Amino acid sequence: MATRTDLRVALGPVGNRASLDPIQIGEVLDFASAVEDLAFGALWVNGSAGREPFAVLGALGQPNYRANLRRGGYTEEDLDTVSDPLVDALVATRHAAALRAG
Questions:
Q1: Could you report the per-residue pLDDT of 7-62, keeping only the tens digit for each?
Q2: Per-residue pLDDT tens for 65-102?
Q3: Three state DSSP letters for the chain
Q4: Which one, of 62, 71, 72, lies nearest residue 32 by Cα?
Q5: Number of domains composing the chain
Q6: Directed axis angle between helix 4-11 and helix 25-37, to 10°?
Q7: 77 is in which domain, residue-wise?
């Protein structure tokens, strides 16, 4: 994986988007940690025909992300039960190919 400085230079001031599907989940978590360390406000998880986005969101629901969601106004109950308002806020409408794939 690139250094954090390399990552910051590559992402620029706004960021970038890319599919997380081909990356092993451990590398996704490392990438997410680096994104957070670089003070980006969000990491978007795509709903493609590959990895299930809810599984990725679950893996990202570690303490640092839970703290960030709490700062955003969500309660521990919202996080523990994956409340409807939390899902509505975090999950964009899925791509038709992903819906067909199940």
A1: 667 666 666 666 777 778 788 888 887 877 777 767 777 666 567 777 777 777 66
A2: 778 888 889 898 988 888 888 887 777 666 667 666 65
A3: CCCHHHHHHHHCCCCCCCCCCCCCHHHHHHHHHHHHHCCCCCCCCCCCCCCCHHHHHHHHCCHHHHHHHHHCCCCHHHHHHCCHHHHHHHCCCCCHHHHHHC
A4: 62
A5: 1
A6: 80
A7: 4-101
Amino acid present at 78: D
pTM for the whole thing?
A: 0.47
Residue 39, amino acid:
A
| Residue 99 in tokens | 């819906």
